[in-house]
Design brief:
alpha/beta, Rossmann fold, 20% strand, 148 residues, two-stranded parallel sheet
């Protein structure tokens, strides 16, 4: 579909967190000299092979370890925060789509996510927001769970 919509060209940049066959499909979307940014750790940790064929298009692959940000200086994180806020303000950065399940729907949420047909994030709402005009520590909330 990407190839059809781009008249066979593909895309210049893929920001990927998908794994297995979806990873391979994402790589196939790259245009000549496209860049592939992998933010998921599953395929990196499992050393999933990517065919050398894809390098015929002079593509580049980059593993992006987002947890690296937390090891950086305050100035670096502040600069990144400002870039992100500017992107949100300009509309270049938009919120991810999401689907919310209630706390009693945990099994349903996991089954939905395991089906792999969702787009965006799956959220389990444990409680209503307790924020006020000041920061408050949430009250303890016990939830029944089966340890397995």
């Amino acid at each position: 579909m990407i190839r059809r919509e781009t008249n066979g060209k593909g895309v210049d940049l893929v920001l990927n967190s998908l794994s297995d066959d979806k990873l391979q499909a994402s790589v196939r979307c790259l245009a000549y000299r496209g860049r592939f940014l992998e933010i998921g750790k599953f395929d990196i940790s499992n050393n999933t092979p990517i065919g050398m064929y894809f390098f015929l298009k002079e593509t580049s692959f980059h593993g992006i370890m987002l947890d690296y940000i937390f090891d950086q200086s305050f100035d670096f994180r502040l600069r990144l925060q400002n870039l992100l806020l500017a992107g949100i303000e300009s509309g270049a950065v938009r919120p991810l789509t999401y689907c919310t399940f209630e706390k009693h729907e945990v099994e349903t949420a996991f089954r939905y996510m395991a089906a792999g047909k969702h787009i965006g994030k799956v959220i389990i709402k444990i409680r209503d927001d307790e924020r006020s005009h000041r920061t408050v520590k949430p009250s303890n909330l016990l939830i029944d769970a089966a340890p397995r």
